[in-house]
Specification:
Elements lengths: L1 H21 L3 E3 L2 E3 L2 H7 L2 E4 L1 E3 L1 E3 L3 E6 L5 E5 L4 E6 L4 E3 L4 E6 L1 H33 L4 H27 L4 H10 L6 E5 L4 E4 L8 E2 L4 E7 L3 E8 H4 L7 E4 L3 E8 L9 E8 L11 E9 L8 E5 L4 E3 L2 E8 L2 E13 L2 E6 L11 E5 L1 H15 L1
Antiparallel strand pairs: 1-2, 2-23, 3-25, 4-20, 5-19, 6-15, 6-19, 7-14, 8-10, 8-13, 9-12, 10-11, 12-14, 15-18, 16-17, 16-19, 17-18, 20-24, 21-22, 22-23, 23-24
Amino acid sequence: MLNMQKMKFKKSMMTGIALSLFMSFNVAANELLLTDAQYQSLGLQVAQAKQVEQYPTQVFPAQAMFHPNATRTLSAPLSGKISRLHVVHGSVSKGQVIAEIESSELLALQSQLLSVSSDLKVLQSELKRVKKLRQSGAASAKKLQQALADVDKLYAEKMQQKNSLQLFGFSKKSIQTLLSSQKIQSSVLYIVSPIDGQIFDLTIRLGERVSENQALFSLGETNPMLLKVKVPVALANRLKKGHQANVSGLGVGVVEHVDPDVDAVTQTVDIHVEVDNSAHRIRPGQRFQVHFLMSNEAHQAQTVYQVPLNAITQFEGETVVFIKEGKAIMPKAITVKNINNHNLYFSLQQPSTKPSNTLHVFVKGSTAIKSAFDAAEESDA
């Protein structure tokens, strides 16, 4: 009983002190008017709110992965035996030899090219002879046309043979050496990486025999990389290809894909963010923190402000910031866009009708301001 009486007495004393301290404050139309001395005594601090074109969303976890359009499977161009594996895992550079295959079919293709090349030389010599005979009238036009057709046909076959060898990994230099020397070259096929990337899913072993078109391994392009982010449906509906995202430790990425499907269990949508990986700092499966940079929708036409987080407070059941206009302090109801890195991003629920959007917000002393409002109202009552 005694304790209850002490608490009531203490509360009445606190109220009395507050009334005596703030009784000289004036409240009119939900505005608090202070003198310069009162500003100083309360330790109030004002900052100009920064207008921003973009504001960050909340932070989401993301996981790195290969770009689906930059993942490929390399297969054996011809049947043969794996004679050497230069790389079995890790990163590879464009043009780097990954594996070698000894193939008797490669020898057969070289032999066919030499045979066609030899036959073409014979037909080209015959064509020259027929052209001379035609000039002297000793050969008919039909015979000349036939000779031309035979040369064209065999020339096309030779080009096809050369292209086939190139597709199977035979270099242009090796083909030139083959034709100039008229000797069969190596039986080794070189499997070369077509991209800067990373090997995974290696399915072959040294000495293993492989058939034509058999899968050997997969390659994933490592630059750029994708980060897969799961976001709520409401946010996904506002994201589009080209939106920017800030990735912890990496800088800015760009939204490359917004999945049309929703995960039935988590009610989230997969967002793919493309990031530069020229420095090779990102590995598939690595995790990052991502927040998206949102722009004001054109139909909202609202100014978004950034101030220190200390500015936000609750007043008369609303989320507000206290702003200064001249000597007056006014609470302004706000819509919180996000709170990130000790900064508050917000828009005013009832934007100012004044031409200037300059906003001076109290970033220190919100509790004192609320007490001043309460005390002044009690004094008026």
